Amino acid sequence: MNWSEYLRHRLLWGETLHRERLYEILWKAVDALEDSQREILLLHFQHGVRLTQIAEMKGIPYNTFYKKFKKTLVTLEHLCIELGLTYDENLWLQSHQP
């Protein structure tokens, strides 16, 4: 292994560990949410269901639902910070959203 391959390997390994730590914190925070908040996040981010569709499924007006969704995201961010997410990691996580 030459020097550039070694550096590349070390950087990828470091980023993998960093990503694993972030996702561990994120999933702990998701688990700490109320059931209804967790359901909304998983439907939207994991299963790709559009917010308008989720609002229809829940039988509530979109604007009301959207306010609840935004509040859930703020709650999730606060939980992540309480679990040890640093400011730099928060920026990294936001930049790597699907």
Largest sheet properties: none
Strand-residue fraction? under 5%
Name the overall outline: elongated
- Measured as a percent range, the helix fraction is over 70%
Structural class: mainly alpha
| Contiguous uncertain segments of 5+ residues | none
Gyration radius, in Å: 17 Å
Q: Can you describe what's shown?
A:
82% of the residues lie in helices and 0% in strands. It has 98 residues and is mainly α. Helix 1 crosses helix 4 and helix 2 packs across helix 4. The two termini are 33 Å apart.
Summarize this structure as a short list of keywords or feature phrases.
single chain; 82% helix; 98 residues
Characterize this entry briefly.
The chain has 98 residues and is an all-alpha fold.
Write the layout of secondary structure elements.
Layout: H1 3-32, H2 35-46, H3 51-58, H4 62-82, H5 87-95
Helix pairs in contact: 1-4, 2-4
